[in-house]
Amino acid sequence: AFKAAVLIQQWYRRHVARLEMRRRCTWRIFQSIEYSCEQDQIKLHNFFSYLMDQFTPSSSKERDFISRMFISGESYKEAELEKYCDYESIEVPDSYTGPHLSFPLLPDHATALLEAFQQKQQLHARYVLNLLHETRKHLKQLPNISHVSTCYSEEITVCGDLHGQLDDLFLIFYKNGLPSPSKSYVFNGDFVDRGKQSLEILVILFTFLLIYPKEVHLNRGNHEDHMVNLRYGFTKEVMQKYKVHGKKILRMFQNVFCWLPLATLIDQKVLIIHGGISDTTDLDMLEKIQRNRFVSVLRLKKRKESSGKPQIHAINGESESGTDAAPRLSLQPQSAPAPSTANRREFSRWLRQTVQEQIDTCRRLVDISESEPEELTYSSMVSLKDADESCWTCQEEWKQVLDILWSDPMPQEGCRENKVRGGGCYFGPDVTEQFLEKYSLQFLIRSHECKQEGYEFCHSRKVLTIFSASNYYEIGSNRGAYVKLGPDLIPHFVQYQANKTAHLLTMTQRQGFLVALFAKISRVEESAFRALREKLFAHTSALISAFKSYDRDNTGKITLSNWATAVESVLRLGLPWRMLRPQLVRSAEHGMLEYKSWLDDLAMEQRSQEHIQSSLLEVIYRNRSNLETIFRIIDRDHSGLISFEEFQQTWKLFSSHMNIELTDDGINDLVRSIDFNKDGNIDFNEFLEAFRLVRQCP
Fold first, then answer.
1. Could you give the CA distance from residue 437 to residue 489 in angstroms, rounded to a whole number?
2. What percentage of the chain exceeds 70 in pLDDT?
3. Cα angle at 223 between 217 and 226, to 5 degrees?
4. Polar residues: which segments have biased composition (predicted)?
């Protein structure tokens, strides 16, 4: 009996170890794909910024239209914003059965909202706009770094990313209690995107913020950014829920986001920021900057409205005297005189050469070597002829905000660029130690990264990551957590999983722990590998080229080791491909893989529900997310439709970059051909279909 017990114990431990290994591999897949998508978003945004900075409008009307379409409403002045989002002009019909709000808000209003949202009711647009109006007024009075003390409450609860998962917020309040004079909360950003109830979360948090302004504190996250919202769902969610007043609500949210504080400091000892720090993070500078200038942290607003703005010149070198003058930034040394704009091809060639000369000049002046061209985009530069101290100060302030919202800790020493996300930096334990010592802090609390257990310490327990969205990647993928701090500042964690299925699995564990654990891991694992196979299929063409480089004799076969190396060289996800191979490669004789057959099998999986050729499907899989983001950028009014004018002006932007000569009549013919149902607008399906048809052309 004793030997049998030992054997069972050994078997059990081996099996649990295998399950843990599979769980960690699954986690790596989810996280790598997530960060890859964030990197794509920043690359896409940089691309549009590059086009914007080099585009030469032919008239003031065209210039204004492009600016309205690609730049957010940061130019809205106070009076204009109030007039545009006039909530008082919106009537609430008698048929409305949802919650009603009146200001100043009371705790009963918050309770009514919680009950209404639990019953899937929707708050009327008038009340949403009124709430945003009052929230904005309150946030404008707050400092960049909120100061909180445990002297006024028994403990302070810190919550991490919620990402539109309302059930997690409900569970936090159920376990920990609602905000009150004796129950303080700090919500550390990323309230929106990915989940389906971002708007409800914001309404609840803003309501409690107005009721208990001294007990509820909100930090800005990297997803409180209108450019990020275009890709990850919040923009779409608002427009779907408020079809009539959605544009006004979105505009107000954009403005409210830029007024959110950047950090919270507890007892002058614990700093709470969303992302992290860098070796140049300066709390004194963060305290003083005008945070509302950064409507989108992804784009630095370069053109100054003050008297110190860069001098603008016309393309032909003369001063700008008329409204139709085409501006460009004047940089030294001066380029060759511009050719006549009548010859579009020669003019475009000259423009590209001029831009490259200007970028080279920028590199020389700021002492950046040619080995780093990808790190310096034209969109990140200002006119260096007039690059006075104020210009560089603005850029440094922007970097300060970018770093605290986008950065991640790393185990290695030092501080380096965060190429995995595409923004912010990686900071090591030495950077943390120096920062804490400089400002006499005990430790940092940050969010920004999903953790399997909902929280994680690093840097000798000097950096704490807290993540509050459970089941983030898939049901059962991770726990959520929040942390409570008392006067002793010792963290106490509470973990949870909000999904009902997860609770059922927990009950099942009493009867069969391994069965439940295996079922949960298998479900999450299958979801991860499905996403990974889609990623592989989307890069079929590049994979074939990589495989052929190892198949010098054209046998159609490569070793499994070369397969792993080639896949990583194409996808660059940093995954343990040799460990993942059994789940991705079903058959391989004598350690050799027939890669064309493997890719055909991969294509069959993705093509099972599609009836278009594999090469086209591959392109759409690879580009759909970017295409959808581009569509939403062009769709300036978020109506779900691109007007002919929006498309025409966007095409001019692209054609200027790609050196495509097309007359206005040609653009009109193009846009009419894409409008398949002839309703005078282009919807997303027509946009995708046009893309597919273009790819079919030889």
1. 17
2. 64
3. 110
4. 331-342
**Residues 425 and 417 sit within 8 Å (Cβ to Cβ):** yes
8 A C-beta contact, residue 296 and residue 226: yes
Q: What are phi and psi of 76, to 5 degrees?
A: -65, 125
Roughly how many angstroms between the first and final C-alpha of the chain, as a whole number? 73
Query: C-alpha 481: how far from its chain's center?
Result: 22
The three-class DSSP label of residue 161 is strand
What pLDDT score does 277 carry? 96
Same domain, 6 and 126: no
The torsion angles phi and psi of 149, rounded to 5 degrees, stand at -125, 140
Question: Are 94 and 206 within one domain?
Answer: yes
Same domain, 473 and 535: no
Residue-wise pLDDT for 131-176, tens only, equals 999 999 999 999 999 999 988 777 999 999 999 999 999 999 999 9
- 245 catalytic? Reply is no
Cβ atoms of 573 and 33 within 8 Å: the answer is yes
Cis status, amide bond into 104, omega within 30 of 0: yes
| Distance, CA of 381 to CA of 300 (rounded, Å) | 9
**In degrees, to the nearest 5, what angle opens at C-alpha 150 toward C-alphas 148 and 151?**
110
Structural domain harbouring 30: 1-55
Which tokens belong to 125? 């647009």
With beta carbons less than 8 A apart as the criterion, state whether 126 and 195 touch.
no
Q: Which amino acid is at 275?
A: G
Tokens of 240: 């779907």
Residues with Cβ within 8 Å of residue 3, at least 6 apart in sequence:
none
Same domain, 28 and 114: no
Q: Are 448 and 190 in contact (CB under 8 A)?
A: yes
Per the structure, how many domains does the chain have? 4
State pTM to two decimals. Answer: 0.70
CB 155 within 8 A of CB 186: no
Top pLDDT among 474 and 624 is at 474
Name the strands in the sheet holding 491-496, side by side, starting at the edge strand that comes first in the sequence.
216-218, 184-187, 156-159, 480-485, 491-496
Q: What is the pLDDT of residues 371-402, one digit of tens each?
A: 333 333 323 333 333 445 555 668 889 999 99
Which helix (H) or strand (E) segment is 492 a member of? Answer: strand 491-496
> Is residue 179 located within the same domain as residue 253?
yes
